[in-house]
Amino acid sequence: MKTRIIADSTADLLPEIKARVQVVPLTLRFGDEEFVDGVDIDHKTFYEKLVESDVLPTTSQATPDAFLRVFEQIPSGEGAVVITLSSKFSGTCQSARIAAEDFENIYVVDSGSAAMGSGILVELALKYAEEGLSAKEIAEKLEEDKKKIYIVALVDTLEYLQKGGRISKTVAFAGALLKIKPVLSVVDGEISVLGKARGSKMGNNLLVEQIEKVGGVDFSKPVLLGYSGLSDALLLKYVEDSKGLWEKGLDHVRYTTIGSVIGTHAGPGAVAVAFFQN
């Protein structure tokens, strides 16, 4: 029995992965302007508007009807696994579950993550589907796998953390003067500050240390790096500074832009790594 993989638009996916997945979009708002995420606003436009805007954008969850329209297109005899961003970030997971109530072979998995974290869980789901696992089996495996997802990011500016109310204006101002770059993590749907470094070189070292601190990378599962903003220069610098970490398990480093959920809090110039812990 064929199993389809469905994700919401906040999952950061490489183009070749996205082509194999059905995507249910959220709504993104900049003040009075409203956009359908991934449909009439892409990552480039998002970051251009983020820099220009005085207020942070907000997202509205995908509705049960949006999921229902996708579910109704699934042929009889096929199953589906739906992977959503963390229910701590959005009601999108609940919308998917409401829509799935009337279907027998559709399973909803709360990724407990967002952006690239959801993205690598989607990739793993596709791998399981290729191996012939049923929708139920895939969902059960993902519920265990998601516990080991880890996102760690180096933020270039404190401005957006301050705008989002996660740090005070005083801390943001002092950090800017001292060129402090915080390292963030996303675990179980929570964004937290793990440490602070002065300058990019120390920040890159702190990022590597944090990856090793949580047990290192499970290279048998998907690994995805990302950057926020309009340039990948800081990401490429990080990859060069930490090449010893990646040479152990990757033929090449795959990376993408970070979408609206994490990008709103990190602001432009962030570098992030999403992986499954050993």
In short:
By secondary structure, this protein is an alpha/beta fold. It is built from twelve helices and 13 strands.
Helix content: 25-40%
Beta-strand portion reads: 15-25%
State the shape: globular
**Biggest beta sheet attributes:** 6 strands, mixed
Q: Please list the strands of the largest sheet in the order they lie side by side.
A: 10-9-8-13-11-12
The low-pLDDT segments are 170-178
Keyword list:
single chain, 278 residues, Hypothetical Protein Tm841, Chain: A,domain 3, 12 helices
Explain the overall architecture.
This protein has helices at 15-18, 43-52, 64-71, 92-100, 116-130, 135-145, 159-163, 169-177, 200-213, 233-241, 243-247, 260-266, and strands at 3-8, 22-24, 27-30, 33-36, 58-60, 79-84, 106-110, 149-154, 180-187, 190-198, 224-227, 255-257, 271-276. Helix 3 (64-71) packs across helix 4 and helix 5 packs antiparallel against helix 6. The radius of gyration is 18 Å and the shape is globular. It has twelve helices and 13 strands. The model is unreliable at 170-178 (pLDDT under 50). It has 278 residues and is of the alpha/beta class.
Chain-wise SSE layout:
Elements lengths: L2 E6 L6 H4 L3 E3 L2 E4 L2 E4 L6 H10 L5 E3 L3 H8 L7 E6 L7 H9 L5 E5 L5 H15 L4 H11 L3 E6 L4 H5 L5 H9 L2 E8 L2 E9 L1 H14 L10 E4 L5 H9 L1 H5 L7 E3 L2 H7 L4 E6 L2
Parallel strand pairs: 1-2, 1-6, 6-7, 11-12
Antiparallel strand pairs: 3-4, 3-5, 8-9, 8-13, 9-10, 11-13
Helix pairs in contact: 3-4, 5-6
